[in-house]
Fold this protein.
Amino acid sequence: MRKSILEKRERGEKAFVLEFKRASASGFVNESSADPQAFAESVNEYCDAFSILTEPTTFRGNFSDSEYFLRFGKPLLMKDFVDSERIVDCGYYNNFDCILLISDFLDTERITTLSDYIRSRGMDVLVEFHDPALFDELKDLKNVIIGYNRRNLKTLRMEGEEEMINKMIGQTDNPFLLESGINYQKMAAMDKLDFDGYLIGEAVLKDRKILAEIKSREVIRYDDARPDN
């Protein structure tokens, strides 16, 4: 997954990771697209990778949902509250390519340990943060994907500070994703930022207009290209 995002960066394009989930802690319930196979078939042409919620209680997820996405040959991100090697192994044995680690719930030492273990399994790591104060602890991590979650997972409120976070992107060599609260009305504004791509969840499930917006952005050039573009 990391390689795929970096390849799009090199071409001056942004990556799209589209997410399947049955429910959310925010109160969202997936009524119309709860079939993972149907979802995968309907959005495959619009994305570079799939994200799958595997947490069973709040998100009604299942590790075995990965089987419906494998035939498309795209990276699979396992989104869960990962805090142990055992959960990482569940992802590995269910053919996931990337594992989410949430820095708002894990300290940097634990993130480093789990990241090393994930990579030893041949998978990538997406390290997510919401609190901007955590970025200084994450920016020097090696060979990870960094994600900024606009939603505060402790309050479930959308508190996006993407303009401020955008100024931090040049401080790391890692690819940088923007997550949560992205809908088709906001896409034009998001295009002006330097994030390498978007992770989009509920918007895809609630309103398919965003797919048309994604399709129109097959190639998105940055206004101010970075030296490595």
User: Anything to note?
Assistant: The chain has one domain: 2-215. Strands lie at 15-20, 49-53, 76-79, 98-102, 124-129, 145-149, 176-179, 197-200.
